[in-house]
Each structure stands twice: as structure tokens, then as C-alpha cells.
Amino acid sequence: MLLMGESINGTRKQVAEAIQARDAEFIKTLATDQVAAGAGLLDVNGGVAGGDEVADISWLIETVMSVTDMQLMVDSASPVALDAGVRAIIAAGGKVPFINSISGEQSRIDAVLPLVEKYKCPVIGLCLSDEGIPPTAEDRFAVAKQLYDLCTGAGLPGEDLWIDPLVMAVSADSTAAQVTMDALKLVKERLPVRTTGGLSNVSFGLPNRALLNRTFVAMCAGLGIDGAVLDVRNKAMMANIKAIEALRGEDNFCGGYLKAHRAGILE
Amino acid sequence: MLLMGESINGTRKQVAEAIQARDAEFIKTLATDQVAAGAGLLDVNGGVAGGDEVADISWLIETVMSVTDMQLMVDSASPVALDAGVRAIIAAGGKVPFINSISGEQSRIDAVLPLVEKYKCPVIGLCLSDEGIPPTAEDRFAVAKQLYDLCTGAGLPGEDLWIDPLVMAVSADSTAAQVTMDALKLVKERLPVRTTGGLSNVSFGLPNRALLNRTFVAMCAGLGIDGAVLDVRNKAMMANIKAIEALRGEDNFCGGYLKAHRAGILE
Questions:
Q1: Helical packing angle, A209-222 and B209-222, nearest 10°
Q2: Selecting from 1.10.8.420, 3.40.50.970, 3.40.50.10070, 3.20.20.20, what CATH number does the domain A97-233 have?
Q3: In chain A, what's the furthest Cα-to-Cα distance?
Q4: Tens-digit pLDDT string for chain A (267 aa)
Q5: How far is CA B215 from CA A109, A126, B3, B219, B227, in A?
Q6: Residue ranges covered by each domain of chain A
Q7: Dist CA A29 CA B191 (whole Å)
Q8: Which residues of A touch B257 (CB under 8 A)?
Q9: Phi/psi of residue B162, each to 5°?
Q10: d(CA B73, CA B190)
Q11: A7 CA to chain B: closest CA distance, Å?
């Protein structure tokens, strides 16, 4: 399972402050902590309200790349910042990054598809259209199919499109998580893409969110989800991930699980 | 999800001692504790080594039925004890019980299928043949299909056959859990039966078994497993189940989850 570390995100208060203050040590620690915790990819989002996002994401990328050569994921609402981020990484000799994200919204397709075509970047595809997040699994699948057609048409291998079926809060709609799982199942069955998700929305408004979040990750893992966007520094979540990897046969002789046990991560 | 309480089992030392000593209070407490914890069915196994299993299971059933009218599951390696148990329950006016279990072993088919035909009892069907537990998901599915044909041929509705795809320890074979999940998926896709499992074998030989067990239940729940044989008195497992039910949309407005939170079960 590809663990996409979510912590370098300018929409979070502490990170926004570090970006504004150009506190490189804070950002470097966020990067190295996530690498040490087992991330396989680092999301980098420079979206500080009122900031200069191109300058911010460029500084973030440079800072992160000074301490790790792990693959990055450039995450922005701004196509200009996405382009600048991808260029900065490639210019510095880094691995071609992921782009977070494209969706079925026309404005997003117009802005991001050219970047996918130009850089052949792996890309997150959100099951979201101009009408919002479709309420049914079939309609979310339809967005996934549209993105698959567009991205492969632009020369991207299907396996580099990472579909996120999206999830809403079960507190607002009891069927919210099941619709996401049904959409995930359809995508896994019908499209040669990969799948991921930022799954923590599911628990919004409920007590013990961590329990719901890690249970939902396990349920999606049973359905074969290929990646997840999460806080790899959360010990209980990582214990859950180690168990998932052992149970999916992705951990030969349970070596990673036993190592995590010896390191005290499973307690 | 149908929670099959596993605790009244004569192969466990404390329960065996209680059966031998005819300690009714101990058994009654096991029954009422499981009902209070949220079981939807109580497994009753009188298999004490060297005991008179027909007498033992009859006493167990009478004892349990004195404190609860919850549906029971008669569990025995002995067809005579199964028959005696089912008869005792029906004679006492109880709900038609489950039988645990039939399998693809010819001797078991010969012994248990007539009981299924006679009583139309819901029955657990183990994906196990005379050659043992098939190593591939397709071969486990083949046993499930054979049991489906036999049981429906004997007049049992398909939905009353509860297929257990069986699981071995991942410590011995890294693919063990994934094979079980693949078999579960095939059964869910192709047969109008229900599915369940005693899933705790999966963690045999590894540290923090509880973590692996509850993660595996969640992964199987993502795939749509309909029931599970488990210790409903285990708080961490029940927290996991409450999260699963909320996430599968089986818990309107998350009422059960919130109630469990207020009762302190989710901590």
C-alpha cells in the first residue's frame, strides 16, 4: 500500500506559520519524520491563505528535497502553482512527482490535463464533477471512467492514474462510507488504474474519529485500495497499516509486522 | 453483521470444567454477558474430552435457554450430538438453531445434510474437503458451490447457508489471509448465500493478535462478510464492530456507535 504522507500542508495552522516564517527546520522535520514513519510519498501543499503560492510551494519543495529524495506529490488548487512545483522538482533532478489532483470539473480538466500530458506525472483523480460529488457509486465510477479516458488519451499509463472515490461524513449520511466502498469496488473491477483516498472525512462530527478512520482504511484495504493519504506519524494508524500489509500478503514472512512490533509501534 | 458469540465452548478449559461440574451459574453468566455485549446468536459447543456429549450439550442448552431466548448455534463434531441439540431446542420451544457445521468432507455431508433437510436449520458451511483446506480461492469457492447445491437441494433457502471460507495463519503462509478474502469475494459475487468466519486463526504465532484479528474482521467487512464468530466480550473488537456497522450504513444516524461511545465501549 502506498502511504501518502499528508502532513506538509499549508492549510494547517502550524505549517502555514512555518511557511510564512520560512522556518525550514520545522518543514524538514515534518519531512524526515514522515519518511522515518514509513511514508512512500510526501504530499506538499503550499496553500497558505493570502500567500504567494508559487513562491511558497517552490520554497517548500526545495526545503523538503534538501533532506530526502523521496517522491513528492505537488498539491494545489492553483494550476500555476502545480506547474511551478512540478518544474522545480524536475529541474532539481527529483523523481517526477504526483499531481494532486485532477477531477471531473471542467475547469480542473482544462487546467490540469495539459500538465499531465506535458510531464506524464502520476495524478490523483477525484470522483467529483461540476455537479459536486455524485451521490451514487455508479455516477462516481462514471467520473473515474471519464478521467481514465482523458488521462490515457493524454498519454498517461492507466496505472499512473490514482482514483480517489471520495468520502463524506457518515454522521451526515449513514450510507456515505458504503457508497465510497461501492465506487471503489466498481473502479477496481472495471478500470486498470490505481486507487487511493483521503479517508478521514468519513468520521467528521463523531467521537473517536481515529477508530473510525483506521477501521475505514482497513475496510477499503480489504477491497484492494492501493494507497491512502494519511498521517503516517499516527502510531495507531500505522499499527493498523502494518496489520493490513501482513494480511494482504504484502509483507513476506510478516517481517515488517514483526519489525514494527519490536520497534514498539504495534502497542 | 451477525455476531456469533463463541464463548460457550467445551474445548476451552474453564468452560469444560463448568460443564463437568454442572456449574449452571458460570454458563448462564457466559450467555447473559454475550447477549449484553451485543451477540446476535450464541454458539453452544459441549465437546468436553471424555464427556458424554449428548448429555453435556443438552444440559448446556437447557441452562442457556433458562436465561435468554436468543437464537443458538449447535456446534459439535458429533452428528448425534448435533441432532440431540437441535431436537432439545425445538422441543423447548426455542428458535430453530443454526448447525455448526457442514463441510465438503464426505463423512460430514453424509452425517449433517440429513439434519439440514429434516430441520431446515441455517448451517455453517466450511470450505474444506476430504483433501483438507484447498490452497486456492477458486477451489474453496468450488466447495462452497458444492455445499450450496447440496443444501438448496435439501430444501434449505440459500440465504440460510453461511459459508465460512476458512483462514490459516499468515505467520505460516503470507498469502493465507488474502486467499480467504479472495474466496470470500468469489462467494459474495457468485452465490446467493451468506458468509461468516471464525477469523482469529489468522494471527496464530504472531504478537498482538488482537490487532491482526480486528483488522482482518474490518477487511472482510469491507468485502461484505455477513457474520463473524467472535468473542463479543472483547471491548476493542466490539469497538471495531461498532465502527464497521456505522461505516457499512447498518447503523442509522450512527445511533449504535454513539450509544457505544456513551457506554465507554469505544475507548
A1: 60
A2: 3.20.20.20
A3: 50
A4: 999 999 999 999 999 999 999 999 999 999 999 999 999 999 999 988 888 999 999 999 999 999 999 999 999 999 999 999 999 999 999 999 999 999 999 999 999 999 999 999 999 999 999 999 999 999 999 999 999 999 999 999 999 999 999 999 999 999 999 999 999 999 999 999 999 999 999 999 999 999 999 999 999 999 999 999 999 999 999 999 999 999 999 999 999 999 999 999 897
A5: 37, 27, 16, 6, 15
A6: 1-90, 97-233
A7: 52
A8: 206, 212
A9: -110, 100
A10: 26
A11: 24
The one-letter amino acid at B55: A
Cβ separation A215–B247 shorter than 8 A? yes
Q: Are B102 and B124 in contact (CB under 8 A)?
A: yes
Judge contact between A45 and A75, C-beta under 8 A: yes
- Report pTM: 0.96
Q: Specify the long-range contacts of residues B145-152, CB closer than 8 Å, at least 24 apart.
A: B145/B190, B145/B191, B146/B104, B147/B102, B147/B103, B147/B104, B148/B191, B148/B193, B150/B102, B150/B109, B150/B113, B151/B102, B151/B113, B151/B116, B151/B123, B151/B125
CA angle B219, B221, B225 (to 5 degrees): 125
B244, exposed or middle or buried, with CB in 10 Å at 0-12, 13-18, 19+?
buried
Cell readout for A266 is 504495534
Nearest-CA distance A36 → chain B (Å) = 22
Rounded Cα distance, B218 and A223, in Å: 10
* Minimal Cβ distance to B239: which of A170, A211, A257: A211
Across the interface, of A247, A252, A258, the residue whose CB is closest to B215 is: A247
How large is the C-alpha radius of gyration of chain A? 18
Q: How many angstroms separate the CA of residue B72 from the nearest CA in chain A? A: 29
Q: Which of B1, B173, B201, B211 to substitute to test the interface with A, most A CBs within 10 Å?
A: B211
| CATH number of this structure's domain A1-90, picked from the four choices 3.30.160, 3.30.70, 3.30.930, 3.30.110 | 3.30.110
* Ranges of H-type helices in B66-136: 79-91, 106-119
Task: Tell me which chain A residues have a C-beta less than 8 angstroms from the C-beta of B245.
Answer: none
**What does the alpha-carbon distance between residue A155 and residue A123 come to, in Å, rounded to a whole number?**
12
